[in-house]
């Protein structure tokens, strides 16, 4: 297989069938780091075999953790009995933003950590201030001169922290730092996404004392030691939402299993705005083929707005596929991306495919549908935009070629196989 594979997609076929989302990428990444908080084995069930998780596991192995995969069983085992160093390799750090999450476990176990600035998707400025300020409040010393160096020679101590923004990775970082800190930590304005809650549930299985899970105020009483655990990673609600959007965009009918309504409430509202109704039953969600497919205007006939925000608002990671869906329904809608100023740039590629869309500024796009998209050759810029381009290609007339699909592989497990099972004409070359 080529090191830079592509997808060849011949569009125009409605997706039909059932599909199960993989384990949540954004839960698995901090959990790999959390496994370093103990010298006992941590076992993850429903572990997604995707690029970002493989890179996190490789980072753990580089500093001495024993890592083993049973990919057939979707099981990942990590035991960090003897960590051999506190310095993460620069090359792997550059591959993934979540590499910053090793700071707290290494501070707890070794009293120090050293790493290059993290990489990841280029979707706008992604500040690390909340990580640094929070760790400093807990007692860490931080130096940055092209390399981030963390030290806690006296250990960490609990305190009251207010996050300036409800950042997911910052919340995860500070929770991991607090579970082995001395005394109580109160974390206010914490992120409450399902993957943050799932990390907290793993840590409680390991012996942590965390209260308020699922809320925006977390109270953590530090303990002296954490142990091993077995934990099933929650299903990826972003992948589930992607399949529902792809089904709706192609005029198909798909049931996504393991998609509980409480994880898709705001997404269901956004779908409804686009004339698509989701049905929830038996823990799953279904898009039917017979849908109105007409944008619901605001009261008084105004153009509706679909905007994102921290949980429980509509998630930013689902914005890109919803924009593609809007090109395939009748009416006009404004999308307002509040969190990342570069996420909307992929819409240029949709316009090249025939979409009726206007990029107002880095945060807002107006889409008028329906549009007949045509095949094109393009490149995936990041994980979520890449999935959106796959969706557009599935809707388009004739053949599309999507290059740089390694970006998509970072967040979606065996995506072409799952789509082919639903009837898509897609090939990896």
Name the helicity range: 25-40%
Mean pLDDT: 93
Q: What is the CA-CA span between the terminal residues?
A: 8 Å
As for the CATH topology of the largest domain, it is UDP-n-acetylglucosamine1-carboxyvinyl-transferase, Chain
How many E-type strands?
23
Q: From the alpha-carbon coordinates, what is the Rg to the nearest angstrom? A: 22 Å
CATH architecture of the largest domain: Alpha-beta prism
- Supply the CATH class of the largest domain: Alpha Beta
Q: How many separate helices? A: 14
The general outline is globular
What is the topology, as strand order, of the major beta sheet? 21-22-1-23
pLDDT under 50 segments (min length 5)? 121-125
Protein described:
- The chain has 429 residues and is an alpha+beta fold.
- It has 2 domains: 7-22 and 235-428, UDP-n-acetylglucosamine1-carboxyvinyl-transferase, Chain; 25-232, Enolpyruvate transferase domain (UDP-n-acetylglucosamine1-carboxyvinyl-transferase, Chain, Alpha-beta prism).
- Helix content is 29%, strand content 23%.
- It has helices at 25-34, 51-62, 90-93, 103-110, 129-137, 168-178, 194-205, 237-249, 265-273, 319-326, 347-352, 383-395, 406-409, 415-421, and strands at 7-10, 16-19, 41-45, 66-70, 75-79, 112-115, 141-144, 148-151, 160-162, 184-188, 209-211, 217-221, 229-232, 253-256, 278-281, 284-287, 305-307, 331-336, 356-361, 364-369, 377-379, 399-403, 425-428.
- Helix 12 links the parallel strand 21 and strand 22 (399-403).
- Helix 5 (129-137) runs parallel beside helix 6 (168-178) and helix 10 packs parallel to helix 12.
- The longest helix has 13 residues, at 237-249.
- The radius of gyration is 22 Å and the shape is globular.
- The N and C termini lie close together (8 Å).
